[in-house]
Amino acid sequence: MLPLLQAETVQTGLVEPGAFLAGYGAAQAVPGPLFTFSAFLGAVTTSGPSGALGASIALVAIFLPSALLIIGVLPLWNRLRRAPRVQRALKGVNAGVVGLLAAALYDPVFTEGVTGPHSLVIVAVAFVALTAWKAPAWAVVLGAAGLGALLL
Asked: C or N terminus of the chain, fewer CB within 10 Å?
């Protein structure tokens, strides 16, 4: 979803690239980051409704299709999840999602967010804080923002 959101908001001029990356980083610190991020993009759009109305429209637009899909599939889900073919297909979908997330991490997050040695140090410290020190994501986001304000 991240490349799609970037293509539809940043590349069309609706959202500034810096605001896009800042919102994506902040959204990672809260539950349901994609929904939070879409509301943020709706709030900061440069044309059309923005603010609370834009956030509400964006939130409904990203949430409604999946909610309708769940309502439609839920009655069949218990039977489907026991089928070996469906289990194998879901494993393949999971692998594909991991690949897409890795691609989105590289472009646009790494290619546009890491602009020099100082930002690379911030990324490295944040990574160590998350993986080795087991710091909560919200604390890492706040710490990275503070380091960015100091170093960048």
From this structure: C
Q: What is the pTM of this model?
A: 0.57
Through-space distance between the first and last CA atoms of the chain, rounded to whole angstroms: 28
For residues 37-55, b (16+ Cβ closer than 10 Å) or e, as one string? bbbbbbbbbeeeebeeebb
pLDDT in tens, 111-143: 888 999 999 999 999 999 999 999 998 899 899
Counting other chains too, the contacts that 63-70 makes at CB distance below 8 Å and 24 or more residues apart are: 63/35
| Residue whose structure tokens are 């539950």 | 31
Q: Which two tokens stand for residue 91?
A: 């494993």
Phi, psi of 49 (to 5 degrees): -70, 135
Report how far residue 71's alpha carbon sits from residue 82's, in angstroms, rounded to the nearest whole number.
19
